[in-house]
């Protein structure tokens, strides 16, 4: 390759224009409930980049094995790997395990010629990737999506630190000029659904028959306010509740009680993990969406919530517990006045009572426009502008 064909450092950071090699490090598997890292990986691939999605460590039948497979999406590759040592060794900063992992990643980068152009690391939970220097990339983006207890641990400074919440950004000592607050982005399926519904009555329910209420997300996360949800189902027997999301088939005792309640309550249905397309099929009948968290048990202190933007992409009203990022946005959702269970039930009752107004065409279109403005492409452009501003300073 001639010198004229070698991308400059500035060009290397231009992932919007495509033709870059990008490593996405995820704490959730590719076949998990789709979250921001999955959406960004897909969008980066659509832009023409070669994207490698690194799954969490798994069992492949042979310690040290690496497998690269097709995702079914053009330009997007899935990487599975089984490590040589137990993950608990990563709790020891600077350990031998870190050295081994670094060497494995160097071997992995050989598939793209020695180094990835960009690494985008979402994993601050396993402890394995807190040191950004082990990632073989020319430019390193770090996006911790959850607060964790280990944030005081040594962290090599990334080129750019991103988060959806101010309190998460504040956990890190990265210079302010290298920090960026971004909104949650929605996947292409939800984006297209919102665009198709905007300005039409496609998202409008007929207001007839039994009211349908939906919740989408992991049904076993500690922050889920299961007590309030059970009260809600019991207090509104005339309403049908749909719970959509992954759960353990062999749960702990307290979670088993909750899941059994969802299975046996006459007005509740437990649907399990569903694809975005399947969720949007359910959305066509959902009148009200739920976000119900116990702020005291939420490691992010209810600072933001990915599912709200996806809910808004369907047009239907959202009843939510207190979420900082949406405080004062009564035009978008109905929020409980405080963190109590009674307050949430009151907000829900008010929403059901005023459902025809809250799901009017005008308010649904407002929600749809908000969701459309949170597309992955829009957020990627915001990130690109930040990278360029940092480059200009340097």
What's the CATH C level of the largest domain? Alpha Beta
Helix fraction bin = 25-40%
**Fraction in beta strands:** 15-25%
pLDDT < 50 stretches: 1-7
Beta strands, count: 14
Spatial sequence of strands, sheet with the most strands: 3-4-2-1-5-6-7-8
Please identify the structural class as seen in this structure. Answer: alpha/beta
Count of helical stretches:
13
Q: Over the alpha carbons, how many angstroms does the gyration radius reach? A: 22 Å
Kindly report the name of the CATH homologous superfamily of the largest domain: Glycogen Phosphorylase B
Q: How many domains would you count in the coordinates?
A: 2
Order of helices and strands: HEHEEEHEEEHEHEHEHEHEHEEHHHH
As for the CATH topology of the largest domain, it is Rossmann fold
**Overall residue-averaged pLDDT value:** 84
Sheet having the most strands: 8 strands, mixed
The CATH architecture term of the largest domain is: 3-Layer(aba) Sandwich
- Amino- and carboxy-terminal Cα gap: 28 Å
Backbone shape: globular
Structure report:
There is one protein chain. The protein has 394 residues and is α/β, with parallel strands linked by helices. It has two domains: 3-185 and 375-393, Rossmann fold (3-Layer(aba) Sandwich); 188-372, Rossmann fold (3-Layer(aba) Sandwich), CATH 3.40.50.2000. The chain is built from 13 helices and 14 strands. Helix 6 links the parallel strand 9 and strand 10. The model is unreliable at 1-7 (pLDDT under 50).
Distinctive features:
six-stranded parallel sheet, 14 strands, Rossmann fold, 394 residues, 13 helices, alpha/beta
């Amino acid at each position: 390759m001639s010198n004229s064909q070698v991308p400059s450092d500035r060009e290397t950071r231009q992932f919007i224009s495509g033709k870059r090699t990008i490593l996405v490090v995820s704490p959730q598997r590719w076949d998990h409930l789709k979250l921001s890292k999955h959406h960004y990986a897909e969008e980066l691939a659509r832009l023409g980049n070669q994207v490698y999605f690194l799954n969490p460590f798994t069992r492949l039948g042979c310690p040290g094995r690496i497998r690269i497979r097709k995702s079914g999406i053009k330009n997007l590759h899935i990487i599975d790997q089984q490590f040589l040592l137990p993950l608990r060794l990563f709790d020891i900063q600077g350990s031998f395990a870190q050295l081994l992992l670094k060497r494995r990643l160097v071997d992995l980068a050989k598939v793209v010629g020695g180094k990835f152009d960009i690494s985008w690391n979402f994993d601050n939970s396993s402890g394995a990737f807190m040191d950004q220097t082990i990632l073989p990339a020319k430019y390193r983006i770090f996006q911790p999506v959850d607060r964790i207890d280990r944030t005081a641990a040594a962290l090599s400074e990334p080129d750019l630190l991103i988060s959806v919440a101010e309190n998460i950004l504040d956990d890190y000592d990265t210079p302010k000029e290298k920090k960026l607050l971004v909104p949650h982005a929605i996947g292409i399926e939800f984006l297209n659904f919102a665009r198709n519904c905007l300005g039409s009555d496609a998202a409008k329910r007929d207001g007839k028959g039994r009211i349908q209420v939906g919740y989408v997300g992991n049904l076993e996360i500690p922050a889920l306010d299961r007590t309030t949800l059970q009260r809600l189902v019991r207090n509104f027997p005339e309403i049908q509740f749909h719970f959509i999301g992954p759960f353990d088939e062999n749960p702990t005792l307290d979670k088993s009680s909750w899941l059994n309640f969802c299975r046996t309550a006459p007005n509740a249905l437990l649907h399990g993990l569903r694809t975005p397309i399947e969720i949007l099929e359910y959305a066509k009948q959902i009148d009200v969406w739920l976000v119900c968290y116990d702020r005291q048990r939420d490691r992010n202190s209810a600072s933001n919530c990915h599912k709200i933007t996806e809910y808004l992409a369907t047009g239907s009203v959202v009843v939510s517990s207190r979420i900082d990022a949406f405080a004062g946005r009564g035009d978008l959702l109905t929020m409980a006045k405080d963190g109590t269970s009674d307050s949430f039930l009151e907000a829900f009752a008010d929403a059901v009572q005023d459902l025809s107004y809250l799901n009017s065409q005008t308010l649904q279109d407002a929600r749809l426009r908000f969701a459309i403005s949170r597309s992955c492409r829009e957020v990627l452009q915001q990130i690109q502008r930040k990278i360029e501003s940092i480059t200009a300073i340097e």
